[in-house]
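Section 5: illustrative case.
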């Protein structure tokens, strides 16, 4: 489940400062519920957005998909994490990548043309090129054969992770 405060804002020109400033129009509570079966997150989700002032439901939607892939993995989380870390380093040659942390979970994700895969969704935090700020990247590793399904750096859109991460 995800719960957070979502802000809607728009730019408004400040004549005194002579620049655009973001003005918050409204804040809503957003709740996202996702089905879990045998420790695997499924692609079925429900999102509810509630106005904190009135208590009114501002928005409600859900997706219920038939799961067409198995829920048993052959690749472990440790193996998937190693594959994901290697991918991060390989994408940044000569970048002096320092991995800070990693976390992952097993999920049924929908990639190309509604094809489902059982995947390890591995988020890697790291520093690169000697910069002070931390970066994050999500790598989707097939839980069946260890292949890279896609990574955020590759512009991959994977359901429902791409929708959830945009909240």
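Designed sequence:
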């Amino acid at each position: 489940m995800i719960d957070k405060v979502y802000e809607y804002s728009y730019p408004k020109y400040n004549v005194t400062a002579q620049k655009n400033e973001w003005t918050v129009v409204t804040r809503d509570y957003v709740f996202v519920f996702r089905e879990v079966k045998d420790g695997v997150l499924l692609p079925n989700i429900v999102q509810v957005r509630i106005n904190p002032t009135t208590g009114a439901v501002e928005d409600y939607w859900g997706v219920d998909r038939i799961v067409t892939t198995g829920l048993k993995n052959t690749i472990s989380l440790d193996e998937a994490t190693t594959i994901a870390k290697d991918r991060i380093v390989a994408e940044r040659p000569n970048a002096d990548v320092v991995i800070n942390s990693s976390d992952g979970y097993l999920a049924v994700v929908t990639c190309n043309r509604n094809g489902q895969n059982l995947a390890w969704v591995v988020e890697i935090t790291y520093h690169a090129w000697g910069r002070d700020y931390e970066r994050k990247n999500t790598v989707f590793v097939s839980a069946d054969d260890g292949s890279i399904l896609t990574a955020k750096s590759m512009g991959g859109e994977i359901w429902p992770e791409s929708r959830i991460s945009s909240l």
